[in-house]
Write a structure and sequence with these properties.
This is Glutamate--tRNA ligase. By secondary structure, the chain is an alpha/beta fold. Helix content is 45%, strand content 12%.
């Protein structure tokens, strides 16, 4: 079977890391099986959907390395949804209801008081044409419910295993509001059927919708897709993620300088039986991630863990992979500079601080007898041009001349040359700083 998956966000805000988990699990599954990935923008909520959010979704997915094979917008597919609704009406599986929210709430309270399940009693199924005409004469417009069959609905969930729902214990769901607008359920099923979606991979918060959707697929004469409901991500404090709050948005993680593969690796490997590790490419990640290895418990996304992953990725990045970004930041020094500072970076943007320390000026807290020591060290710097081993030969000469060794030798040299006590190896930094600036720093003049 040819695999087709879809990622179906609503363009009502920026994607957060939880949305990225779903998108990535779909993308990786499609890559693993040589299938297609469809981005379906569920933009039928006209009050909250925004074109700028739709554009941002495409951009953020591209940053992660996800380029859809097809992009569709639900708002442009109304004819498909209407045709599905008409078919269900013709089968007497979609029926009009005229109760107001207040009437439904009173009915629900009576059922609870009688220790009955608060399930819709299908009273609207008994209305006559005259009853319906009378309601419409009052100005009531019907909402439309889908008639569920009184049977068990089962499916083999790729994440959760065998699932069983007694559809007869559920209320007939409302598919169309009184104003004629669709709720999520029917357009989603109609689009999945029309687009040939074979696998629906989504968060476990949708698992309660699945039995209803399977019945709708079957009523429409379509084969239900294979379902997989993965565990959700929560923030470090245990709270859920939401596009409305902007918490852990891909946009903010990108602005903070994290590598897309660090974000992708953590987003899909936490909450699974695989160890969390930095993975260099989506193709490699596709070979690791499997839906049946995901835990049933929510997974905590901790930005502190992302820092460590990002550091490990950055320290392996070749110069060619970052040259453009370094140039945009005004960082020179070429490959020699990158290789010198790379082990000390958590993010590529951290290189800017080290470049400023190469360019200067540098303020070094040098006092007392270290000042005379550094004056001596400055006088021992070889003349230009420097050989490749200039640092080793220079430090050897300083050691012999001053008798210093260990921390007493290296600490003041590092402080004077870079302004900090720790950082990249001086043997790599000294040639980048150059003789003229090194002398100024060692003598306290720059």
């Amino acid at each position: 079977m040819s695999v087709t998956v879809r990622f179906a966000p609503s363009p009502t805000g920026y994607l957060h890391i939880g949305n990225a988990r779903t998108a990535l699990l779909n993308w990786l599954f499609a890559r693993r099986h040589g299938g297609r990935f469809i981005l379906r923008l569920d933009d039928t909520d006209t009050e909250r959907s925004r074109p700028e959010f739709a554009d941002a979704i495409v951009e953020d997915l591209a940053w992660l390395g996800i380029v859809p094979d097809l992009i569709v917008r639900q708002s442009e597919r109304r004819d498909i949804h209407d045709a599905a609704a008409d078919r269900l009406r013709g089968l007497d599986r979609l029926y009009p209801c005229y109760e107001t929210p207040e009437e439904l709430e009173r009915r629900r309270k009576r059922q609870l008081a009688r220790h009955q399940p608060p399930v819709y009693d299908r009273a609207a199924r008994s209305l006559t044409d005259a009853d319906r005409a009378a309601f419409e004469a009052e100005g009531r417009q019907p909402h439309w419910r889908f008639l569920l069959e009184d049977r068990a609905v089962t499916w083999d969930d790729l994440c959760r295993g065998a699932q069983h729902y007694a559809a007869g214990s559920l209320s007939d769901p409302v598919l169309i509001r009184g104003d004629g607008s669709y709720l999520y359920t029917l357009p989603s099923v109609a689009d999945d059927a029309d687009l040939g979606v074979t696998h629906v991979i989504r968060g476990e918060d949708h698992v309660t919708n699945t039995a209803v959707q399977i019945e709708i697929f079957e009523a429409l004469g379509a084969t239900p897709p294979v379902f997989a409901h993965h565990n959700l991500l929560v923030a470090a404090g245990g709270e859920g993620l939401s596009k409305r709050t902007g918490a852990l948005s891909l946009r903010s993680l990108r602005a903070d300088g994290y590598e897309p593969m660090a974000v992708a690796s953590l987003a899909v490997l936490i909450g699974s039986s695989e160890s969390v590790q930095p993975v260099a490419s989506l193709d490699a990640l596709a070979g690791i991630v499997a839906l049946d290895k995901l835990s049933r418990a929510p997974a905590t996304f901790d930005p502190a863990e992302l820092v460590g992953l990002n550091h490990r990725l950055v320290t392996d990045l070749p110069y060619d992979a970052v040259a453009g970004r370094l140039d945009e930041m005004g960082i020179g020094g070429g490959e020699a500079f990158w290789l010198a500072v790379r082990p000390n970076l958590d993010k590529v943007s951290d290189a800017l601080d080290w470049w400023r320390r190469v360019e200067g000026p540098v303020a070094a807290p040098i006092t007392g007898e270290d000042r005379a020591f550094l004056e001596t060290a400055a006088g021992l710097l070889p003349a230009d041009p420097w050989p490749d081993d200039v640092y080793a030969s220079w430090v050897g000469a300083v050691k012999r001349e001053t008798g210093r060794s260990g921390k007493a030798l290296f600490r003041p040299l590092r402080l004077a040359l870079t302004g900090v006590e720790h950082g990249p190896e001086l043997k790599a930094m000294l040639p980048l700083i150059g003789r003229e600036k090194a002398i100024l720093r060692l003598t306290g003049k720059g």
